[in-house]
Amino acid sequence: MNSNPLTTLFGYFALLSLFAVGGANAAIPEMHRVAVDVMHWMSDQQFADSFAIAQMSPGPNVIIVTLIGYHVAGLAGAAVATVAMTGPTCVMAFVVARFWDRFKDAPWRMAIQSGLVPVSLGLIAASAFVLARAADHSIYAGIITAVTAVVAYWTRLNPLWVFLIAGAIGLTGWL
Amino acid sequence: MPDSPPAGASPPPGTPPSLTELFSAFAVVSVSSFGGALPWARRMIVEQRRWMTAQEFNETFSLAQFLPGPNLINFSVVYGSRLGGVTGAVMALAGLLGPPLIIVTVLAALYARYGDIAALTRILGGIASAAAGLLIASVVKMLEPVFRKLNFAPFVAIAGFIAVALIRWPLPIVFAVLAPVSIALAWVSMRR
Q1: Range of A130's domain?
Q2: Is A147 a domain residue?
Q3: Which residues from A are below 8 Å from B186, CB to CB?
């Protein structure tokens, strides 16, 4: 591995972005594997915290790479990680958009689309599992996760309320 | 915003926006979207500004979903480039990413400075548990239509989950194996 953290960050996120079919959430397990298990950039808890901050912040969830980059190498790290994660795929989107519409009814295009859907869903499900394991260190924390999942599934409550309540419960120190 | 349409007089569907309108619309979407930006983008572009019909929005979004990378970022690039080439793509992207980047960088700096404070750690711990629960709920919603049909798709999703979540194989390897297999299976099931 290269010793300069900025080059490592760039190469790693640029590569990762190309496999992130299904969005940032599909890439969470791989980010966790590299940032926590392989590179030891952050602890399990710090990773879970970063995801929580990214979720609380407005905007696309991919913003978690900005937080990881900042944690590794400050402002420069934040900028490098963000550009690496969004740059290659933006160029790709720009190029593909030019000719994609021409093949609207081509069978290979439909096969690619319907073949990739279950792959990305499996990856997003893995994200949920990895995040729950990183965040829940006690039975009470697990209950928070379970109750939130049920509430979010059955109601249309704004997620900010859920975060507010969960944060307040966390502050009490019961978790 | 001098060049935005006056309230109450919405333009006919399909009227293309100017580049500054494009930037400001995506900026508004990005700062108002908590927990996933898609519903906000749809509301802004289809229902409020009426730049696209619902059908056009779905078609463009399905392309954005199929491409690697964050869906809404791809969407902004595809839509922006259709309206104004490279400049359009950059304007839409800058609107979508600029404001959240500033906010999150401030939060990152605060976390780096105060992240060790016990009270803050406890609050974030609670929120992290809730955030995982939110993701579980949206995964279940997305998986329901897939598991209702008995074809290759549920098996692919389960295989991907086991490989990445339980065995912890690297994503590029899992993807390189699973994606071609799944596309081939989709092709075969389409032919039948």
Answers
A1: 5-135
A2: no
A3: 110-112, 114-115
